[in-house]
Amino acid sequence: MNLASPRSLFLLAFIGCSLMMIAALYLEHVVGLAPCPLCIVQRVCVIGFGLVCLAASIHGPQKGGRRAYSVLALLFAVAGGATAIRQIWLQNMPADQLPSCLPSLEYMMDALPFQDIVRLVLHGTAECAEVSWTLLGMSIPEWTLLAFIAMTLFCFWQLLRRD
Q1: How would you classify the pairing of strands 138-139 and 134-135?
Q2: CB atoms within 10 A of CB 104
Q3: Predicted TM-score (pTM) of this structure
């Protein structure tokens, strides 16, 4: 298998997303960092991107199919990047301007319509502004933003390839 082929690159992107999810689950279950609502949205975007890449690597599409997979993956990357930017913005807000914490997801599912739950979760809360772990001075959403930027560049590169 040619390592520079679109199929191989989609597989490598899937493996990268799998490693990101392994790291997220390690931080949650071993280190004890509970994910906030915006973290969960970012995880969904990483999983979505990874599954699109896995499907593309299994399918091995030609030029048109590769572009379709790239556009779908790009949607996940942009949504995840926007969510990471929102969380970074919340982390840099003064504490007195932060939105309040949300009730539990179980309570919201029982009490609120679905569109209100989505709006509240995407808006973020005070718990989304906590920086409880850093690596090289960068918080988790800052690292995931870098990953989403790399995913976006990957998608554009796959879209613009001539082969």
Answers
A1: antiparallel
A2: 8
A3: 0.78
State the helix-helix crossing angle for 63-91 and 37-59, rounded to 10 degrees: 170
Residue 61 vs residues 7, 81, 108: alpha-carbon distances, Å? 8, 26, 41
pLDDT in single tens digits along all 163 residues of the chain = 555 788 888 999 999 999 999 999 998 889 888 888 788 889 999 999 999 999 999 987 788 888 899 999 999 999 999 988 888 887 777 666 655 555 555 666 677 776 776 666 655 555 666 667 666 877 888 899 999 999 999 999 988 887 7
84: Cβ contacts below 8 Å, ≥ 6 apart = 38, 42, 141, 142, 144, 145, 148
Are the CB atoms for 16 and 143 separated by under 8 Å?
no
What HEC string does 111-162 produce? Answer: HCCHHHHHHHHHHCCHHHHCCCCEECCEEHHHHHHHHHHHHHHHHHHHHHCC
Name the one residue in this structure whose structure tokens are 């959403």: 141
Collapsing DSSP states into helix, strand and coil, what is residue 83?
Answer: helix
What is the spatial distance between Cα 11 and Cα 60, in angstroms, rounded to a whole number?
10
3-state helix, strand, coil in the chain (%, to 5): 75, 0, 20
